[in-house]
Design a protein that fits this description.
Elements: H1 4-11, H2 13-20, H3 23-29, H4 35-53, H5 56-59, H6 76-87, H7 99-114, H8 116-131, H9 133-145, H10 165-177, H11 183-210
The structure holds protoporphyrin IX containing FE.
C-alpha cells in the first residue's frame, strides 16, 4: 500500500493544478495585477491562518494533530507585518473576508474544534504548499511590486526558522506516514484535503472576480 504522504499528494494533484492555474493566480504570477490585488489576497490569508493558528494551543497535545503543530511554521506574525506594510498601520480597520474566505476559515475552525484528522488535512494543504509553491509566489511578488528580497510584504513566504525547507518537507511527510489513524480515517483526511483545495480555489475565483483584467 502507498504511504499516506504519497496518497494525500496524489489525491490532491489534480486540484493542485487547478489552483495553480486559476485565473487569479496566473494573473498574479504573470505580473498582470496591481499590488492592491496582492494585498487583498494577503488579507484573505490572514483569516485562514488566524483559524489555523488560534487552534494550536489546544491541539498541541492531541495524538493525531499534535505532532504537526510546530512553532517554526506559524505565519500570523509575518502576515501581520506584511499587512502593515501593504495597508499601513491601520490595516486591521479595513480588513474584510470575502464570503469564500469566511467559508474556508469557518471550515478550518470546525475541524480544529472537533476533528483533529481534518485539521491535519488543512494544515498539510497550507503549510506544505507555502513551503513549496509559496517560494515561487514570493519571487514573483518581489519582482513585480518591488518588495525587498524576503522583506516586508513577502514575509509570509519566508520561514525564518526553517533553514532547509526540503529537509523540513521530508520530515513532514514522515509525520504524515506515522499518523496513528486507520485506513478509513486516512481516506477521510484525503477527502478533507480535497475540500481544502476546493476552498482555496473558491477564494481565487472570488478574487478573480474582484480583480478582472478586462473591466
Ligand atoms: C501558483 C501557485 C502555486 C505554485 C506555483 C505551486 C507550486 C508547487 C510546487 C512546485 C510544489 C512541489 C514541491 C515539492 O515537490 O516538494 C508544490 C507542492 C505543494 N503545493 Fe503548491 N503551488 C501553488 C499553489 C498551491 C496552492 C494554492 C495550494 C493549496 C492551498 C498548494 C498546495 C501544495 C501542497 C500541499 C504541496 C505539497 C505536495 C506534497 O509534496 O505532498 N499549492 N506546489
Amino acid at each position: 500500500m502507498d504511504s499516506f504522504s504519497s496518497l494525500i499528494r496524489t489525491a490532491s494533484h489534480e486540484q493542485h493544478v487547478e489552483a495553480e492555474t486559476s485565473t487569479f493566480m496566473s494573473d498574479l504570477l504573470g505580473g498582470r495585477l496591481g499590488v492592491d490585488a496582492y494585498a487583498r489576497y494577503t488579507e484573505q490569508l490572514w483569516f485562514v491562518y488566524e483559524a489555523l493558528e488560534s487552534a494550536t494551543g489546544h491541539l498541541a497535545g492531541d495524538p493525531v494533530a499534535g505532532p504537526f503543530v510546530q512553532p517554526e511554521l506559524l505565519r500570523l506574525p509575518a502576515l501581520e507585518r506584511d499587512l502593515a506594510h501593504l495597508r499601513g498601520p491601520d490595516w486591521r480597520a479595513g480588513l474584510t473576508a470575502l464570503p469564500a474566505t469566511r467559508a474556508y476559515a469557518d471550515r478550518v475552525r470546525e475541524c480544529a474544534e472537533g476533528w483533529p484528522g481534518g485539521y491535519v488535512a488543512h494544515h498539510y494543504t497550507r503549510y506544505l504548499g507555502d513551503l513549496s509553491g509559496g517560494q515561487i509566489i514570493r519571487d514573483r511578488a518581489e519582482k513585480t511590486w518591488g518588495f525587498a528580497r524576503k522583506g516586508d510584504g513577502v514575509r509570509f513566504y519566508v520561514f525564518e526558522e526553517i533553514g532547509n525547507p526540503a529537509a523540513f518537507k521530508r520530515g513532514y511527510r514522515e509525520l504524515l506516514d506515522a499518523i496513528g489513524v486507520d485506513e478509513l480515517e486516512q481516506q477521510r483526511i484525503v477527502g478533507e484535503c480535497k475540500r481544502a483545495f476546493a476552498l482555496n480555489t473558491a477564494v481565487f475565483r472570488a478574487l478573480g472576480e474582484e480583480f478582472p483584467l478586462t473591466a
